[in-house]
Amino acid sequence: MIAFGLRLAVAGGREALTRLVVIAAAVAVGSGLLLTTLAGVNAVNAQLTRYAAVYPNASTAGSADPLWWSTRDDYFHGQQIVRIDVAGTGPDAPTPAGVPSTPGPGEFYASPALRELLAAHPADQLADRYPGRDLGTVGPAGLPSPDTLLAIVGGTPDAVRALPHARQVSNVGDTPALPEATVDLILGVIAGGLLFPVLIFIGTATRLSAARREQRFAAMRLVGATPRQIATVAAVEAAAAAVAGTAVGFGLFYAFRSPLAASRSPVCRSSPPTCRWVCWTSCSWRSACRPARRWRRGSRCAGSGSHRWASPAGSPPPPRARTG
Amino acid sequence: MSVVIEARDVTFAFGQTPALRGASVAVEAGEILAIMGPSGSGKSTLLHCLAGILVPDSGEISFAGARLDTLAETQRSSLRRDRFGFVFQFGQLVPELTAVENVALPLLLSGVRRTSALERAKAWFARLGLDGLEERRSGELSGGQAQRVALARGLVAEPQLLFADEPTGALDSLTGEQVMDLLVSAAREQGTTVILVTHEARIAAYADREVMVRDGRVNAPDRIVS
Question: Which InterPro entries match (chain B) (predicted)?
Answer without folding.
Answer: AAA+_ATPase, ABC_transporter-like_ATP-bd, ABC_transporter-like_CS, ABC_transpr_LolD-like, MacB-like_ATP-bd, P-loop_NTPase
